[in-house]
Every structure is written in structure tokens, then in C-alpha cells.
Known about the structure:
- With 252 residues, the protein is an alpha+beta fold.
- Helices cover 45% and strands 14% of the residues.
- The chain has an 8-stranded mixed beta sheet with strand order 4-3-2-1-5-8-7-6, sandwiched between helices.
- Helix 2 (87-99) crosses helix 4 (152-162) and helix 3 (112-118) packs across helix 5 (182-204).
Amino acid sequence: MGKAETIESSTALERAARIDLAAAFRLAVRLDMHEGVCNHLTLMLPGSKDRFLLNRFGLHWAEVTASNLLTLDATGRILQGEGEFEKTAFYIHSRIHLANPNAACVLHTHMPFATALTLTLPGRLEMVEQNALRFVEDIAYDDEYNGLVVDNAEGDRLARVLGSKRVLFLANHGVIVVGKSVAEAFDLMYYLERACRLQVLALSTGRKLRPISEQVAKKTYDLLLEQTTLYSEAHFDALKRILDREEPDYAR
């Protein structure tokens, strides 16, 4: 492949990455996973180990487009785009991206049902429902709220707590979900919120939760994990087709 072809390919990959991340913002609004102009979704640029896309501070997620996403490096320099970024976004996301090679996409939200569980004791997602079984032994829990994330040290601490898992519950705060792609991370975030919602609804009946055996839970998790890429991409592609019909400006 010649130099011109390499540049063209790289540009096409970045364009596709921007479209996917912009779609995630718009879809999060539709699914009530956003909050004001807060929270953040990021994506490592294809082929890069230290440059990522981040939403500009002050934009509602319904205003995010592929072209108004910022490109940052690991030191916090804005390499492309206009405007500022939220400092907590940088310190959370940059440190997780650098620490976890599987965290190409990092989604941090205060989505209501998952966040509701972080306000309770012991604040665990119970493995009692099929959607929840996507997360068997794949959730890390930070059980002490430590205030706003305003430096690398706190970002590094969160990255250590998350480790190699794909979900981090932040006590009294919200959740972080990571994936190898926007499709994988968004699909996980979607089903995490569904599982949390069902647990909250089940507990609201005042009755005990019906257990699932550890053996069945683990077997189901393994089967679901095998299908992650196939199903997450199909799900995300379907959601993007809805956006293409109803909010095509996300991709501009």
C-alpha cells in the first residue's frame, strides 16, 4: 500500500470512528442515559495508543456530531477541534485508555437505574436475570466515593480498580463501561442498564430475588461472551440505521 493509500485509509477509519462515537451520544439521549452537559464518552483513534476522541464541553449530547468531537492526546493537548473539554473527563478516560488495552472505548454515565444501585448497600448487580449474566465476574466495584476526579492520581486509581474488567460501579456516582469498540461498549452499557432496571423493579415488589446457580450463570456468561462481537455489532448497526433515518446530522 502506497503512502497516499495509507493516508486515505487512515482518514476513512477515523471518519468511521467519529461517526460511531457521535451515534453513541445521540442514542444515549434517546435511551435516557445522559445528564445535562455532563458525563463523557471517548474512543481511542484507530491505530493510536495515546490519542482519543472526546465530546466538547457545553454541548448537549443531542448536539454532538462526528465533526465536532475533539481529538486529544494523553497529555491533554487538543490536537483537533474547537472548544474546551471537561477536566474530569480527561482524567478519568485518559488514564483508563492508557492502562487497559481492551478499553478502546470508554463510556461514563450516570444512567438512572445503574446509578441507583450505586447508592445502595451493598450496591451489587445480582446475577438473577439473563441480561445480568452478561456481567458474571466482569464488574469491578469502587465502594468509596472519593469526590470529583481532578488529577491523574485519582484517574489511575479508578483504572486500577477496574483492572481487566469491562464494568466499574462507582459508589454514589455512576458507572464506567469499556469495550474494544463503540458497538461492544454501547451494547454492554445498554444491557447493563436493562439489568439494573429489572433488579430495581424486582426489589420494589418487596419479595426476595430468585437465585440462579453459579454453574448455570457462568455457562450462560461464556456463551454470551462468545457472541459479543456478532450481537453487539448487529445491535449497534440497527440503532445507527434508526439515526440515519431520523437524525442523519449526527454523522456530519
